[in-house]
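User: Continuing from earlier, I have the next pair ready.

Assistant: Great, send them over.

User: Here they are, in order.

Assistant: Folding the first of the pair now:
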Amino acid sequence: MNQARILQGDYDEPLNAAGINLAKITGKALNGIHFDEAFSSPLSRSLDTIKILLEESGNASTPIHTDKRIQEVNVGDWTLCHLDDKSNPEYENIHQFFKDPFSFLDVPNGENVYDVMKRTQDFIKELASRNDDKTYLVGTHGFASRCLLNMFYENKRDFWHGHVPYNCCFNILKVEKNNISLIEEDVCYYDKDSIKDYYS
């Protein structure tokens, strides 16, 4: 659907062969890192990615929990719209929403950026409040991850922070005494020639 420029939102489109391949490559690159627990959006493309990452990195026995708070944005009536369909009366609104989510808050029967920021940031703050020495793997989606990470960005109005997160990229967070910091951004563990930016 990304390749076809069809808007998924929280529609449960399964992981395709390219996504499976990226997850396998990335999982192998993570070999040697022990994950104590994993969390995933309930959507299958996230959950299957997490399962592959754990298996390929030697963490097949790591428990996985699903949490709706890290599910992708619900785009309501726009779900499965084609992004290039100029005959769609919502075409301008859809593009305004994705160009600058802070400037368009009335997603018909869906969520706005503040809705998603609240739930994703609630999730990560709750996880950080455990204040333990565990390493967690968290699987989410492009829009949802930018909402979660917005709290760390210097320019919070620059929602996309340069680009839509690349498939299977990592943002690494460190927690010390309930203080969360972003220490690495949008890291890809696969060949840069395989990076696809479907939306810029």
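And the other member of the pair:
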Amino acid sequence: MDDMDEGLLKLTNHREHPTNKAYKVFYFRIKEQADFFENDLKSNGLYYETDIEITNRGELYLFGIRKSDLRTVQELNNIAIGKFRTPFIEKKINQYIVILIGLIIVVFSLLSFFKNNV
């Protein structure tokens, strides 16, 4: 596989297999995440093929999965992604600030609505 083009927005971590339409390729950049995913595939008795591709951004851990197993594999993929996911806003204080700003916007919107409709 050539250097995988992930596009501008990386919304998923899977692509069509370049040569076998019966397979889908899942990929991970973090070795621990790829290992976790592979262990889940093994524990569920799913057939897969694996490879490592060297890209200009580092190693890419590839898993060729049969499309007939896609539903189960997508659930396992979501679990693997979720386990290693970092929060969008990591610090709790920043999370509370965003919530507070959102609440202030809602309150001002409601006040403006009622003031202009009375």
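Worth noting for the second one:
The chain has a mean pLDDT of 90. The helical segments are 31-43, 70-83, 92-116.
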